[in-house]
Design brief:
Elements: E1 3-6, H1 12-18, E2 25-27, E3 33-38, H2 44-56, E4 61-66, H3 68-72, H4 74-77, E5 83-85, H5 92-102, E6 112-116, E7 119-122, E8 144-145, E9 147-148, H6 159-163, E10 168-169, H7 172-179, E11 185-188, H8 204-215, E12 221-222, H9 237-246, E13 251-257, H10 261-266, H11 273-285, E14 289-294, H12 311-314, H13 316-320, H14 343-348, E15 358-359, E16 370-371, H15 372-391
Parallel strand pairs: 1-2, 1-3, 3-4, 4-5, 8-11, 11-12, 13-14
Antiparallel strand pairs: 5-6, 6-7, 9-10, 15-16
Helix pairs in contact: 7-8, 8-9
Length: 398
């Protein structure tokens, strides 16, 4: 059967990582054969509608879903898809397709969900992959994923639930080999300054060794900028000296998430407001602009707290000196009310079912509901603003 990746402008990183593993073409819509989808929560309703229409039209296709949203809610995805790949797909997806094409059945493939009659079957966890065994991209270029997993388990975040709490790192030789294909070098990591470490204590000698190795390629290096970020408690004079010595950054993406000590404690960030302010000061002292990610509280998050300052309140003095405070939006597989696999979202309940008449834009901190298309447009608008501003490494504010 011919295989297709459903391509759009929001899943290019996932496709870039999976293209080296499969002989599959790109498709702007459903095609006959095996259709492969990777999507996050903001795209779920649109994807489900597309798959449902294709089935109603009688398209001869098998539909497989993966990515953040299907991994978190496989039973929901199985209402529309034949199979769901849960979590990492590097090993699972090729094995599943081989099982389908050889007729040996999907039950032997670990890390997937499928339906047997009315029952949803989960085949069990698969061990985490060794990143060095799999290329970060092939024909479609993407930022180089240097680290996967996170030990912190923040209440709003899906990363440790998808990829585990043990950080895994690509080796410097592998990173260097793929960096040669880029005109400038950018990375993906839940915390760039945690490279080479356990994620709880920095090992700056590892960060320095990585950047020193890449410096020899004589290309601009952007470290700790979108699509990565750094934790405030990992920022130090030594870390910033390493970055300014080797990199072309004009800014640092700082994962502050809130200026409220109550919110920071409740979501399990592992740092307080003081660490955020201190990190901003250090970044500014080294001539860079701190771009502080800030999650606007959703309904049910620290309700009644009197200490929930907005993006401009926590760092008012620093903003006058050039610090930015972009509001965190679902540009990176996240939902403002918490990713669907995160404890915060499980406590809040489902954030609107696909195809529902109105989408809950209260995740943006609003008290109104809008028609679904308008809600999606608002979310995308904020996401694109965040994406473009940090991808170009320009100072901006939202």
């Amino acid at each position: 059967m011919r295989k297709w990746f459903r391509q759009n402008n929001k899943n290019s990183y996932s496709i870039a990582a999976l293209m080296p593993l499969l002989r599959a073409d790109l498709a702007p819509g459903p095609r006959a054969g095996i259709m492969l989808y990777s999507f996050a929560t903001p795209q779920a309703g649109e994807v489900y509608h597309e798959v449902n229409q294709a089935r109603e039209a009688g398209l001869d296709a098998l539909f497989i879903a993966g990515g953040p949203h299907p991994s978190a809610l496989p039973e929901e995805a199985l209402e529309y898809f034949d199979y769901v790949v849960i979590g990492e797909g590097e090993e699972t997806l090729p094995e599943l397709i081989d099982a389908i094409e050889t007729g040996r059945g999907a039950a032997s493939v670990r890390g997937i969900a499928y339906r047997r009659g009315e029952e949803a079957i989960y085949t069990g966890d698969r061990p985490p992959v060794d990143l060095d065994c799999y290329p970060p991209f092939s024909s479609i270029l993407a930022p180089i994923e240097i680290t996967r997993g996170c030990p912190w388990g923040c209440a709003y975040c899906q990363t440790p639930r998808l990829f585990g709490r043990c950080m895994r790192h690509r080796s410097i030789p592998v990173i260097s080999r793929f960096a040669r294909r880029h005109k400038d070098i950018r990375f993906t990591s839940p915390n760039s300054l945690a490279y080479g470490s356990d994620g709880r204590r920095p090992r700056l000698e590892k960060v320095s060794a990585l950047l020193e190795a890449l410096r020899g390629q004589k290309k601009p290096i952007y470290f700790g900028t979108f699509p990565s970020e750094v934790r405030p408690d990992f920022v130090s004079d030594e870390a910033l000296e390493i970055i300014t010595r080797h990199c072309a950054n004009r800014s640092i993406s700082l994962g502050g998430q809130s200026g409220s000590p109550a919110v920071l404690e409740r979501i399990g960030r592992g740092h307080g407001r003081q660490e955020i302010e201190s990190a901003c000061e250090i970044i500014l002292e080294h001539g860079l602009i701190p771009q502080v990610d800030h999650i606007r509280p959703a309904d049910g998050v620290c309700r009644g707290s009197k200490d929930v300052p907005g993006p401009g309140q926590m760092d008012r003095g620093k903003r006058r000196e050039g610090a930015g405070a972009p509001v965190h939006a679902p540009a990176r597989n996240s939902s403002l009310g918490g990713d669907p696999l995160s404890p915060l979202q499980r406590c809040r309940g489902s954030a609107g079912q696909p195809g529902s008449e109105r989408a809950p834009v209260r995740q943006l901190g609003l008290e109104v509901k809008l028609p679904e298309r308008l809600a999606v447009f608002v979310l995308q608008l904020i996401s694109y603003y965040h994406l473009i501003g940090q991808h170009l490494d320009l100072p901006y504010r939202l």
